[in-house]
Amino acid sequence: MILGMGVPELLLILVVVLVIFGPKNLPKLGKSLGKTVKNVREGMEEGDDSDKKVEDAKPAADATAEDVVEEPAESDADAADEGAVYCTHCGHKNEAGAEFCSKCGKPLSK
Asked: Under 8 Å CB-to-CB from 85, ≥6 apart: which residues?
């Protein structure tokens, strides 16, 4: 007995499937059904993996204020950006005195 069905019920289902799809299409149907089952299993495994990753990330989110190291308000990169000019065409950062963008060659507006 499979799923509460006996041999006569399973044979009746098989005959109905043969009539509907025909004997030539049964291998294609079986192949597509197998791929579907495989994809569902892989999807369920990926869901389990992502749940584990989320659980692993939770302890890091529970860090206290003492664990967090504060960075200085103004870093060296901010000091170097003071004179930088950004291209209005491509957004590339150029040196302070540049007239043309070093990436796209367009004139920099002042």
From this structure: 93, 94, 95, 96, 98, 108, 110
Segment 52-93, tens digit of pLDDT: 666 666 565 555 555 555 555 555 555 556 778 888 888 888
Q: How many Cα atoms sit within 13 Å of 90 on the Cβ side?
A: 12
- H helix runs in 62-94, sequence order: 76-80
Residue type for 81, please? Answer: D
* Domain coordinates in residue numbering, the chain: 1-54, 80-110
For 72, the token pair is 């200085």
Q: Class of 1-54 per CATH?
A: mainly alpha
Q: Is the dihedral of CA 98, 104, 105, 110 positive or negative?
A: negative
User: Which of 92, 95, 96 has the alpha carbon at shortest distance from 104?
Assistant: 92
Question: Is the pTM above the cut of 0.90?
Answer: no
